[in-house]
């Protein structure tokens, strides 16, 4: 404690700021005191609630407006020692799973030192108490130890800039070791998904970490690797250059390239990076690319049971007669190739008959192998459901097929677990994957790992769609590789009648769109002023609602998040139009986000099979209330309908899964989704994102009507721009390498058997 620092012991009598008495706000002003004195204190008193006794350390300051106040630099919450103090804490909103009744049961059973006993003995001392379930005992222990641990972290690290939210995450990640770990290497903070390199760098500087520290350099390398937009690797010279630029931006000294090289070597020794020739990978991405390449090469190399072509031909004729359809040459080739190979790719633009071909493949496969089982899956729920309507097999997300999700371990920490893998493969003999363009390297790799030996896989997708949001360009790489493939090109009559399909193909061929006066399926509303674009989009929505469309039928897509006609701006404006506030409508504020009953929402992070939550899910807020399944809880959250299921989202869920309002979403996020009407701004302000495949993806989301609003010049720029999305991946080369190794091995084996 510094010389002028004072310690005061007292009770928080009233929190003046913030008014909402949340416990995770970093700055609080409160009336504090005891029977002898009252004083206004201000500073960080994480976790303290009104009526609670704490000890504050700090100094007296003279506020120009409010006079003498006490500035809190550190504080301590004495562990409650009497029965009544323990009851106060246990029945407060800080402790989850424990209402006043349970609190009374606990203090009556454990006595004066109840809190200390729980912190020491954990669930063991609670379980014998009648009326406390195992689940609630876990919650009580977790929230008490979080509370005291987080306070300890704040006490030691807040002075350097560690916030309450960071402390909560640090506690989850490192438990009671958090303080020594961060004091040694503050860049460990970047392992928490909420702390970026820049923030950690400021905290490190406050702690006096040297600018040329290897920890700093390693953190910068990892930061650059993680920030790569969709690439699987970075070229080493580029990485060194980018890293020096990042470090030098905030250094008084020049960071040498040799130090960056040393950091790269260290990280690769510690299994964080993999360097292959001049390609630098994050270790995990390297493993994923390698596994996928090996599995694909195995499938290309292996041949399943040979089915005579004549048998397939007979089944094909029967199928066509039964379904009164004549499959074109490429569609027929797909059927034959499915039976000749263990892996096959089927690609083609909208309306070229991919789904019709899958239907034929499934029916013929069932005739040829009546005992075999088939799995139908896609990267998103929407895509898998669309397919199941036609093929009459239950479509699943790849995540659900693999039973992939977040699981809670015994101590309450979350881990990702994937039930299906080499050790516990899928049972199905034939796996069909639709919308493969959306699968990133991780999803594809995990799916291939889970295929049982001898199974077949048919991969279907439109190679002209945007690549996956996550790293990799799996579909495009597989098309470049030795994997057999068929490309469908014929557009069917029904499709030709649709200006949406026609314009999608025109854009793919580098031509401008065409519109026909009086036709409502494709409309281009020319507006030169970007502000007018937003106004026109809002006017279109109003009109669509007047003519009978529901708000769920309309999807507004923007290529950019920020700026005029970006997702953030449009979301706010459309929300005000479609779901304006009123005194009877409840609202929930979570950080900078706010939700109203009736809002359309979208999930932007993580998949969780247990909760039935998948990245990109959209839903509707039905109510703002406490969790109907947890009557003891007092915290309000969102009761939502997501994909026909009622799901309760706590404040924590909203942050963890990054739920936002979804009146307007990025075109990238819209992949695999469809809506009756799609509206998209096309303006030169979005020039970085004006690309052919962003435009193509937006158009192919529309089922009945596509409305573009903006400038012809911007449209022309997008149609011409074919360069983006060149992703640094080495998948196809690796497949070739593993395949040729297998072929050489076989040749050698054959040679010796001869
Ligand atoms: N060989 C064929 N003869 C006649 N009609 C066909 C044939 N193949 C497909 N179709 C029809 O063409 C339309 C578009 O086909 P389908 O839905 O299979 O295309 P798709 O490539 O899956 O399109 P999208 O990617 O847009 O979903 C459907 O109505 C389908 O029944």
TrEMBL record:
Protein name (database record): ATP-dependent RecD2 DNA helicase
According to the UniProt entry, its GO molecular function terms are: 5'-3' DNA helicase activity; ATP binding; DNA binding; hydrolase activity; single-stranded DNA helicase activity
Question: What lineage does the source organism belong to?
Answer: Bacteria, Bacillati, Bacillota, Clostridia, Eubacteriales
Top EC class, one word = isomerase
Q: Which Gene Ontology BP terms does the record give?
A: DNA recombination
This chain's function reads: DNA-dependent ATPase and ATP-dependent 5'-3' DNA helicase. Has no activity on blunt DNA or DNA with 3'-overhangs, requires at least 10 bases of 5'-ssDNA for helicase activity.
Residues the entry annotates as binding ATP: 351-355
EC numbers:
5.6.2.3
Q: Which organism is it from?
A: Thermanaerosceptrum fracticalcis
ATP-dependent RecD2 DNA helicase SH3 domain boundaries = 570-630
Please give an example of a GO cellular component term from this record.
exodeoxyribonuclease V complex
Q: Which residues does the UniProt record annotate as the domain ATP-dependent RecD2 DNA helicase-like helix-hairpin-helix? A: 147-233
| Record-annotated UvrD-like helicase C-terminal domain positions | 662-708
